[in-house]
Amino acid sequence: MDSVFQALASAPRRKILAYLSAKDMTAGGIAPRFDMSKPSISKHLRILESAGLIKRERKGQFIKHSLIREDLAKTLNRFVQEVCPVGRPLGNESHILVRKG
User: Fold this and answer.
1) CDD domains annotated for this entry (predicted)?
2) Coil, strand, or helix at residue 57?
């Protein structure tokens, strides 16, 4: 969880996530939107990937980056449950009801 919040602590990385929430992009497609070098963009992408927030997939000669929505949602949900312990029993109760059908 710490790596996710460390990744989210950076404004450029949050902005990259916002772009990737709309569509998959290459580093070359992301770079012109920032006033920083391409190696800096690549570093931010590696940090986001290490935190499990994005994934990359080679398509021919290009590497497309995409948001892993489920992992971000799970991490934020876990954090909220830690901060708001009253929500944990309610969440557990919901899971039990779903399993019972």
Assistant:
1) HTH_ARSR
2) strand
